[in-house]
Amino acid sequence: MVLEAPQGVTVTVPDPTHVIVNGADKQAVGQFAAEIRKVRPPEPYKGKGIRYEGEVVRRKAGKAFGSK
Question: Does the pTM exceed 0.85?
Fold first, then answer.
């Protein structure tokens, strides 16, 4: 999936697991970051997905073995 950054927002990718979104308009930066995150939001079971820096995803327990 390819997303076009709006005017005034710059996107840099320093390594394959990090994306940096910068710009003067705080609302435009936050909106574009939300659109990027919407592609693959973090899921609670394996913790995979796109998340913001410093965000902690609460993990859920999976299936318990031997329980009825």
Answer: no
Please state, in angstroms and as integers, the Cα–Cα distance from residue 10 to each residue in 1, 34, 61, following that order: 18, 15, 38
Alpha-carbon separation of residue 21 from 1, 41, 63 (angstroms): 17, 17, 37
Q: Is residue 34 scored above 90 in pLDDT?
A: yes
Query: Please, which residues bridge with residue 16 across strands?
Result: none
Helix or strand run (H / E) with residue 4: none
Could you count the other beta carbons within 10 Å of the beta carbon of residue 31?
13
Q: 31, 21 in Cβ contact below 8 A?
A: no
